Amino acid sequence: MASSRSFAFTEDWVVVILGLATIFLALSGVVAPVPSFSWGDSAELVSTIADSANMAKLGQQFIFVFATAVLGAWLLGKSVRSLLVVFPVVFVLTVLALILAGNATVKEYNLEAVIFSLAVGLLISNCFKLPDWFKEALSTELYVKIGLILLGTTVIFGDILKAGSLGLIQALAVVLSVWYFAFWICKKLKIDKEMSLMLSSAVSICGVSAAIATSGAIKGDSKKLSYVISLVLITAIPMMIFMPYMAEWMGLSQEVTGAWLGGSIDTTGAVVASGSLVGEEALKISTIVKFSQNVLLGLAAFAISIYWTYAKSVDEETKRDKPTLKIIWERFPKFVLGFVFASLLFSFVISPEKVDAVKGSLKNLQGLWFTLAFTSIGLETNFKDLFVQDNKKPLYAFLIAQTFNVAITLLIALLLFR
C-alpha cells in the first residue's frame, strides 16, 4: 500500500499548505458547516443531532476534512489507499466523542471532547489488536498542527486592548512567574525537557491549547501530551467548583475573585463556569484575564519553538559549538510560521465583519482536528504507556506548580484589583 509518489513535502510545510488553504477557502466563501452536538436527554439527542439537516452538515464537514486528510497524505507520500479506510473510522469515533462531550451534564463538569476521543481510542486499541497498516495510516501530528494553524485565527492581537491594561498586566505576571516556577520544579524533579515544557505551558497559560501548541512546537511525544491534558482536565473540575466558595470564605470582592479564577484555572470553559457562580463582575474580569492569557499563547509558542530549536541543535548537532542559523532553520517547526501568519492576518488585515463571518466555522474545524488527533493517539497507544510508574514525578510537579499558580495569582489579583 505504498504511495506511488516519488517525492514528498515535509510535514510542517504540508500543514502550512493545508491550514492556510482552509483559512483562505473560508475567506473566499467556502465555509465548512458547523453541526450541533449539544443535547440534554435521549429525545433531544434524536431530534437535534440525528436530525436530517444536522446530519447533512456533518456529512459536508466529513467531506471537507476527509479531502484535506487525503491531500495531506498524498503530499507527504503516505498511502492514500490505507487512509481511505482508516480516516472514516477515526471520524466516526471522533463524532461519538463529540456527542458524549455535547451532553448537558458532561458540559457542566467541563469535560472536553479530546478526553472522550482519547478514551474511545484507548478502549478500542486495548480491546482489539489493530493491524500495523491501520496504525501507520494514523496522522496524529498532522491533525494537531492543522488545528494549531486554525487556532492562530482566534489569537487576535487587537482584542487584547479590549481586555484592559490590568488584565494584560496580570496575565503577563502570572504566565511568566508560573511558567518559570513550573519549569524549575520539573528540573529539580529531573523530569525530561519535553514533559517539562508541555507541563509548564499547560499550568501557566491556557491548559489544553497551550499543551497542544507546545507539543507541536517541540514535536513532543503524544503520550506525554495526553498525560498532561488529562491532568489539566481532571484538576480543573475541583478548582472550578471549590475556588468560588474559597473566595467567598476569604471575603474577596468580585473583581479580585474574577482575576483569581481567570488566572488560576487552566481551561476557559471552567473559568466561565466558576465566574458565573460568583456574579456578573467576577465573570467579566475572569474572562478578561483568561482571554489575555489565551492571546499570549501565540507569543509563548513562538518563543518555545526558538528555545527548543536552539537547545536541540546544541544537544544533538553541534555539541559544544554554537549552532548555525542553517541548523536552527532546519529544526525550526515551520508550522509555527503558519500559526503566526494566521494570527497576524486576522488581527490586522481581515475586517472584523469578515472575521465574525468565518470564525465560528474555523473554530469548529480547529476543535475537530484536535479531537481527531486525540482519537488517533488513543488508537495507537497502550494503557500501560499512559499510566506507568515514571508518571508520578510529572504528577507531583503539576500539583506543586498548580498550587503555586493559585497562590501567586491570588497575590497579584489582590495587588491589581483590590
UniProtKB/TrEMBL annotation:
It comes from Sphingobacterium thalpophilum. Belongs to the UPF0324 family. The chain crosses the membrane at residues 12-38, 58-76, 83-101, 142-161, 167-185, 197-218, 224-247, 291-311, 332-350, 395-417. It is found in: Cell membrane. It comes from the Bacteria. It is a multi-pass membrane protein. This is Sulfate exporter family transporter. GO terms for cellular component: plasma membrane. The lineage of its organism: Bacteria, Pseudomonadati, Bacteroidota, Sphingobacteriia, Sphingobacteriales. Keywords: Cell membrane, Membrane, Transmembrane, Transmembrane helix. The gene is yeiH.
